[in-house]
Amino acid sequence: MYNVTFIDGYLETSSSAERLGMFRRQVYGEALGPREQRSFRYLFVPPTTVKPGEYRLVFTAHYQNRDMANFVDAVFNETAELVPASSEGLSLDMLLLGGGVVAGGALLLVVIYILGGAGSASVAGSQAKKAPTIKKAAAGPDDASDWLQGTLAGSEGRSPSRKKKKP
């Protein structure tokens, strides 16, 4: 069992092997079993003083075994050409990130509006409750509701009247 403790690297000229800058150390602390392989993401940015051209990039992985013995292995030692950053503007990743932030903000505003609007409507509705009104049709000679007189028809929504007992 091995433990990958960290990875670091440096930049040197391809002709004279002069070190131009160190890349930052990234700590992992990942355990690896015997004969196990794993990929690690190592992000680095060359120093701003370096001009575009051919350079040697060297990256080393530092790991330990169970007995805490330290090991170092060069995982990348190649010559590469550094080119200036492209000036295309926004990348696709940045556009997707920005779109996600805008969509999330809009969704949050909608939720706040719905919750805030429902709360204020219920408060206003409870303060200004009115008794329901029943509109009566004009009674004419052919009024079809004459046969319902004396029944409870049409009394929906009205509270029953209480009769007072006389002593």
SSE topology:
Blueprint: E1 2-13, E2 19-32, E3 53-64, E4 70-82, H1 92-127
Antiparallel strand pairs: 1-2, 1-3, 3-4
Word description of this protein:
The chain is of the alpha+beta class. Helices cover 22% and strands 31% of the residues. A hairpin with a 5-residue loop joins β3 and β4. Strands 2-1-3-4 form a four-stranded antiparallel beta sheet, with no helix packed on it.
- Major β-sheet profile: 4 strands, antiparallel
Shape, per Cα inertia axes: elongated
Q: What Rg do the Cα atoms give?
A: 40 Å
Mean pLDDT: 78
Question: Class by helix and strand content?
Answer: alpha+beta
Uncertain runs: none
Beta-strand share of residues: 25-35%
Helix content: 10-25%
Helix-strand string: EEEEH
Side by side, the strands of the main sheet go 2-1-3-4
Number of helices: 1
The N- to C-terminal Cα distance equals: 100 Å
Number of strands: 4
List keywords for this structure.
alpha+beta, 22% helix, 167 residues
Summarize the entry for a quick read.
With 167 residues, the chain is of the alpha+beta class.
